[in-house]
Design a protein that fits this description.
By secondary structure, this protein is α+β, with helices and mostly antiparallel strands. The protein is about 45% helix and about 20% strand. It is built from 5 helices and 4 strands; from the N terminus they run αβααβαββα. A 4-stranded mixed β-sheet has the order 2-1-3-4. A hairpin with a 2-residue loop joins β3 and β4 (about 105-110). The radius of gyration is 15 Å and the shape is globular. The model is unreliable at about 10-25 (pLDDT under 50).
Length: about 150
């Protein structure tokens, strides 16, 4: 049953990615961006990690996504010429990165390397990812919004 659930989540992640389901950023407000960087060819574990992370962001944290405080992205770092992100975030393989951004600038970030360790333990995965998202959303709420974006 668990394998079926993971398969369904992975399929949903692929469909949502194909549909470009990324909401527009909130204008003039700090926001948290969860980005899953992946390769073009992906194994079942990569798909599972993306599906679980996408669900945590767009399902569990849906109200934050709808308000524009939280954004989900899935990026194929082999297709998109993304050398700056590979360097900045130390990407050498598929990774989930959480950033706190204001006015188009990354203020802080964390690469959640333990998603691989927790990929078969959904409860631990959720606790790890949701904990990081909550921490970053709290930090975002403490920032005075950028004035540059309203000019």
């Amino acid at each position: 049953m668990r394998g079926l659930t993971i398969g369904i989540l992975a399929g949903a992640a692929l469909l949502a990615a194909a549909a470009g389901a990324t909401p527009a950023p909130a204008e003039g407000r700090p926001q948290v961006v969860a980005t899953y960087f992946h390769r073009t060819l992906r194994c079942q574990t990569c798909l599972q990690i993306e599906a679980l992370a996408r669900y945590d962001v767009t399902g569990v944290m849906a109200s934050d996504v709808e308000s524009g405080r939280l954004v989900w992205r899935s990026v194929d770092f082999e297709v998109e010429d993304d050398a700056s992100n590979r360097e900045r975030f130390g990407l050498d393989g598929p990774s989930l990165v959480i950033t706190l951004e204001d006015g188009g600038k990354v203020l802080r970030w964390v690469r959640l390397d333990r998603v691989w360790e927790f990929s078969t333990d959904v409860a631990a995965f959720d606790e790890y990812v949701l904990g990081a998202l909550e921490e970053y959303l709290t930090a975002a709420s403490e920032i005075v919004p950028s004035r540059n974006s309203s000019q």
